Amino acid sequence: MKRNFAAALQDDSQQAINAYLRADQAEMDARWSDDINRYKSNPIYLGKAASLLGEKHVLYNQLVAKQYYFEGLIKRLEGGKTGDTTVLNQALALELKALELDSGAAYVYNEIGLIYDEIRKPYRAAGNEQKQSELFQKQIDNYEVAMELAPKWVMPYHNAGQTYREWRRLEKAENMELKAISLDSNLVVAYSNLMLIYYFSNKYESCINVNKKLLQIKSDESAEWSFAITCSESLLGHLEESLIWLEKAIILGVNYNRIQEDTDLEELRKTSEFESLMKKYFPNKKR
User: What is the spatial distance between Cα 106 and Cα 114, in angstroms, rounded to a whole number?
Assistant: First the structure.
């Protein structure tokens, strides 16, 4: 009876972990939305389940490790939303406690990589390249352990690909995302990042081809994605297509100064159609 009750208490937490390991889109969306409340009951129920079974039970350490994992996840989402590095360091401490009890939990190493990503952001804003490089490497180190422990789990490869892209290690970034796509051919975030990788690598045809694949599995676009295609089409001399994507990028939030200053759009800015688009969306701007 006690064992059944403990199993029921941890069921929701295990389902959330399993969904994450499957890269379930609903679970991904919940985590990316910074929905802290979604996970608040998980560590409470896991703690109660562990207490019911007792310290001598074979599952005790795993349950407490998961409790720490979810507490750390909540702290990371909270710290990411507020930019509070104290909260982020608390998240890191909780995940390290989880590893002390369950060193084979790939999802914990992946979470540590994500925490270091949040810790890195103030240094990026300050332009501190040395500190950023140190934190980039810590991210990669943890993602690589997650890959070793769960070689068929797609998320550590994607997260490493995103880290390498931000670090401008573009060849490594490409390899990581291609591996992620080989594991899940419908992983939208992998295609989105690969498109940006090709754009920053000056592989504009490849960038556009990835976009075509992405449109087959996702009908809506992001501002960054749309602007990357705008620039790629412009650089290839496809000015009509570039203009179509520029309008989408404007609607999604790309600002006037960026459009006017980006050197990739130099040829597009010479066209009368570009001027008409600027007048339509930025009528009060002086040109």
Answer: 13
Which of 90, 124, 151 is the endpoint of a domain?
151
Is 157 a domain residue?
no
Is 101 contained in some domain?
Answer: yes
Judge if 229 and 90 occupy the same domain: no
Phi, psi of 254 (to 5 degrees): -65, 130
Asked if 187 and 180 count as a contact pair (C-beta separation under 8 A), the reply is: yes
pLDDT digits (tens, 9 = 90+) for 131-143: 999 999 999 999 9
Contact between 34 and 75 under an 8 Å Cβ cutoff? The reply is no
**Distance of alpha carbon 132 from alpha carbon 126, whole angstroms:** 10
* Domain encompassing residue 270: 220-287
The reported pTM is 0.84
Q: State pLDDT tens for residues 15-70.
A: 767 776 676 777 767 666 666 778 888 888 888 888 877 888 888 899 999 999 99
Instruction: Say how far apart CA 194 and CA 170 lie, in whole Å.
Output: 10
